């Protein structure tokens, strides 16, 4: 006879947290959201950690280069989507790794023979007023000067004036050498009262600008997640088909962590992929696996060598796996069972394997609940797809700004490898939809607000750290009628603007 799970399959919306005692030390500014990203032995530190418990989903509509830099700036990690060619995925990773925190590559390059009219047009195109004047007008040319809006006055100058006549020439510039650190660059900016410092290599080619305003923003992001060379940490998705070519290319591009991207991780294909990575790289290359929803799946991937394990089948906002195939499990129940399996494994082996609750986060408080249920961090798709930094299109639908958001198993993404169950047969049905989500602005402002809510709730629960919350949170099931009681009810709401529809 088939095995039946005794517990019903539950979602986060079916639970609430019950407050614990809050002492005077337990304030949001004292909350520490640091959490392990990869496995570690008892008493040791993980090789990689997150400063906030959030990673962005391995999806075309979510995780590109801009998202990766913006999220690392806040302390999280993006996994660049794998449903693209190996070359373009590796190029995205390389681009993130080339974006040193506080150092900005120039997308505005102009020749000394160009005119003021060209300068105005380039400024309109890029939105940037600082331009590198290079011998050939290209990014790889020798730097001969820079142009900023202080160098010209449109009302008083002829539009045909050549750039070389009004630029600040190289010999008048203060420049940094390629190996300069951000704080050394900042010292030069302050000492010489500059707005920007060009950084050049030994052939006088521009490598980056350091802007005064960016240094200030770097100071504002104390959670930035950087490697030992001060480059942003970035992840990438892989599949169980072309890993022998894809993984070396990503490693060469400088990726920090990989994740096998699959809707169902309890399979020989994942074990084979993990084995090949271990045989080829030992423990040097960090790789997560998943997704699983029970103890057996967790054990399997733990023993196969996964560095972290992703939990969740069928809970994603764009996901129709449960309807199409009848497999899956409520996200809260799955997270809880896998977290218990993780703790048992830790007791037995002394190895802690972080788990990631993936998909189905709708309200900010679901993040706190996922952590209370034992997740070490959460993966979000819909949440990040709403932001400016996501690589998806911004469109107007019935007068409202929307971002396009489509599943990896939709006909649009055609990421059939994610649903690979071996054999030669191609997928003949979809497991995801193509949709819109309301545009929500920049990642920085939204993540700040979300984490402020998480920290406040943790204080209500009397917890200052994620391990503390995992151990001490009190959770209660809610009845359907008490859910109605939880929102504004029996009143006519007047002020819609003040978060009346909370995230
Ligand atoms: P969301 O945060 O609820 O939007 O869920 C995002 C998660 O849904 C991803 O991290 C994937 O695990 C999963 N996912 C992405 N695309 C699909 C799909 O087409 N079908 C099913 N699940 C998907």
From TrEMBL:
- List, for all copies, the residue spans of the domain called CBS: 103-163, 167-225
Name the residues that span the membrane: none
Binding-site positions, NAD(+): 261-263, 312-314
Cofactor names from the entry are: K(+)
Reaction catalysed? Answer: IMP + NAD(+) + H2O = XMP + NADH + H(+)
- Domain of life the protein comes from: Bacteria
Q: Does the keyword Metal-binding apply?
A: yes
In Gene Ontology terms, what is a biological process of this protein? GTP biosynthetic process
Any single GO molecular-function term of the entry would be:
IMP dehydrogenase activity
> Which parts of the sequence bind K(+)?
314, 316, 319
List keywords of the entry alphabetically. CBS domain, GMP biosynthesis, Metal-binding, NAD, Oxidoreductase, Potassium, Purine biosynthesis
Which E.C. number(s) belong to this protein? 1.1.1.205
Q: Does the keyword NAD apply?
A: yes
**InterPro entries named among the record's database cross-references:** Aldolase_TIM, CBS_dom, CBS_dom_sf, IMP_DH, IMP_DH/GMP_Rdtase_CS, IMP_DH_GMPRt
UniProt family annotation: Belongs to the IMPDH/GMPR family.
Indicate what this protein is called per its UniProt record: Inosine-5-monophosphate dehydrogenase
UniProt lists the gene as guaB
């Amino acid at each position: 006879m088939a095995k039946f799970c005794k517990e019903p399959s539950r979602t986060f919306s079916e639970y609430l947290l019950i407050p614990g005692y809050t002492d005077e030390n337990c304030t949001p500014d004292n909350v520490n959201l640091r959490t392990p990203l990869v496995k570690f032995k008892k008493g040791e530190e993980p090789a990689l950690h997150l400063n906030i418990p959030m990673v962005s989903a391995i999806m075309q509509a979510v995780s590109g280069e801009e998202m990766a830099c913006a999220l690392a700036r806040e302390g999280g990690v993006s996994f660049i989507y794998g449903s693209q060619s190996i070359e373009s995925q590796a190029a995205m990773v390389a681009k993130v790794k080339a974006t040193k925190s506080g150092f900005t590559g120039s997308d505005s390059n102009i020749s000394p023979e160009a005119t003021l009219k060209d300068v105005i047009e380039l400024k309109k195109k890029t939105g940037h007023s600082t331009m590198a004047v290079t011998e050939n007008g290209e990014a790889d040319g020798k730097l001969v000067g820079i142009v900023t809006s202080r160098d010209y006055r449109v009302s008083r100058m002829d539009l045909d004036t050549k750039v070389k006549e009004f630029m600040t020439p190289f010999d008048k510039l203060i420049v940094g050498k390629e190996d300069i650190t951000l704080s050394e660059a900042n010292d030069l900016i302050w000492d010489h009262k500059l707005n920007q410092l060009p950084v050049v290599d030994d052939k006088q080619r521009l490598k980056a600008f350091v802007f005064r305003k960016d240094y200030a923003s770097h100071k504002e992001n104390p959670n930035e997640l950087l490697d030992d060379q001060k480059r942003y940490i970035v992840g990438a998705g892989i599949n169980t088909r072309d890993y022998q070519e894809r993984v070396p290319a990503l490693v060469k591009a400088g990726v920090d962590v990989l994740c096998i991207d699959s809707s169902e991780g309890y399979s020989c294909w994942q074990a084979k992929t993990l084995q090949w990575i271990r045989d080829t790289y030992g423990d040097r290359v960090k790789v997560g696996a998943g997704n699983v929803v029970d103890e057996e799946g967790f054990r399997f991937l733990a023993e196969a060598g996964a560095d972290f394990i992703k939990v969740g089948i069928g809970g994603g906002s764009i996901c129709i796996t449960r309807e199409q195939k009848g497999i899956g499990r409520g996200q809260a129940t799955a997270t809880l069972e896998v977290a218990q399996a993780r703790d048992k494994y830790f007791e037995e082996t002394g190895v802690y394997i972080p788990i990631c609750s993936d998909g189905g986060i709708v309200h900010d408080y679901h993040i706190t609940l996922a952590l209370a249920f034992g997740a070490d961090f959460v993966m979000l798709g819909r949440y990040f797809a709403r932001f400016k930094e996501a690589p998806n299109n911004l469109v107007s639908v019935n007068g409202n700004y929307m971002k396009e958001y489509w599943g990896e198993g939709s006909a649009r993404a055609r990421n059939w490898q994610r649903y690979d169950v071996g054999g030669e047969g191609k997928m003949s049905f979809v497991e995801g939809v193509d949709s819109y989500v309301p545009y929500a602005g920049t990642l920085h402002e939204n993540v700040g607000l979300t984490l402020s809510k998480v920290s406040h709730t943790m204080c209500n629960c009397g917890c200052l750290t994620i391990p503390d919350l995992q151990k001490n949170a009190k959770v209660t099931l809610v009845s359907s009628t008490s859910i109605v009681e939880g929102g504004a009810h029996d009143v006519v709401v007047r002020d819609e603007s003040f978060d009346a529809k909370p995230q």
